[in-house]
Amino acid sequence: WSQQGPLDEVIANVEAMEERLFSRCFQSICDTDGLAEVTSAPLQYLIVRHTALNEEESHASLMKASANGKEVEFRSFLELLQNHPIRDQDAIEQFLNYSS
To answer: Model's pTM, two decimal places?
Structure first.
């Protein structure tokens, strides 16, 4: 952390912190070669939970993001998350649920 303090740094570097967090999640479900199987339940759960994609769309998007149709690398996974953000209303509802 910098001299600013943890929260200030997170706010100032939201995209970097987001990448860091998702990198850790991805690493926990990928193979030793750094790739995650397209059919991985934890991978699909992450995408459905953190994007506007449903399960069917998630699988189709992972297939497109995969170079070989079987595995996906972290950069492709991150782009998928960034290109399909959850709706603002869903984000607000999640925030309200966590804060109550």
So the answer is: 0.73
d(CA 38, CA 15): 24
Q: DSSP for the chain?
A: --TT-HHHHHHHTHHHHHHHHHHHHHHHHS-TTS-EETT-HHHHHHHHHHSS--HHHHHHHHHHH-SSSSEE-HHHHHHHHHHSPPPHHHHHHHHHHHH-
Rounded Cα–Cα distance for residues 47 and 34 (Å):
18
* C-alpha span between 41 and 57 (Å, rounded): 14
Q: Are 48 and 58 in contact (CB under 8 A)?
A: yes
Query: 1 pLDDT band (50/70/90 cuts)?
Result: very low
| Contact yes or no for 47/62 (Cβ under 8 A) | yes
